[in-house]
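Hi C.,

You asked whether I'd gotten around to modeling the 223-residue construct. I have! Everything is below, sequence then structure, no commentary in between.
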Amino acid sequence: VSISVTGGGSGTGIAAMINDTVDIANASRRMKEKEISNAKENGVTPVEFVIARDGIAVIVNPENPIDQLTMQQVSDIFSGKVTNWSQLGGEHRPIVRLSREVNSVTHIYFLEAVVRMGNKKDDTLFAPSTLLLPSSEGITAEISQNPNAIGYDGLGYVTEEVKTIAVAPDNYSQYISPSIETVIDNSYPISRALYMYSSGEPTGHIKEYIDWIFGTDAQAIVK
């Protein structure tokens, strides 16, 4: 069996599914109704599989004394309303914001779910001074060296060189640290589903592969 795997982000995979050039598209967001409609117009019926859940960790340098933030505080940081760690009970240091680039689905998810607090009518943007980096690894590396920095990364990219922040949905809720357990039970407030889309109901080798994804061995890799 000849297999070709190509990267490029969720948008690339979904576009390839619409254009009928792949058997499976991986995505960290659900396909939009318009995208599904475009695919069907092209003779493709995308079939959705939720294969995992991903937590987006808010991360800082280990020297930063801040251990917990509310969603509103995280939003205020990345929108530029809060500019100094002292405004949050930390040291008198300027906040350096790091984000994935604007074409990253993780960037879009964080903008919509965190910066805009899930409010579809909100048009808040990342602060103009936010540094946009092309990779999750780049964000982790920069934060590990910069005590003023804050960023976000998929839980799988977090290393021991950075510190994760416990996040509360509001001022009245418990602060929850990101972990495999809190992402799976949905108690950690910044988490999302991860998807695979097949072109029509999977058969043959495609079905074997997707069945394997849901099996014990592959889910151990997911973990």
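If it helps when you're writing up: The beta strands are 24-27, 46-60, 68-70, 96-100, 131-133, 149-154, 163-164, 166-168, 191-199.

Thanks,
B.
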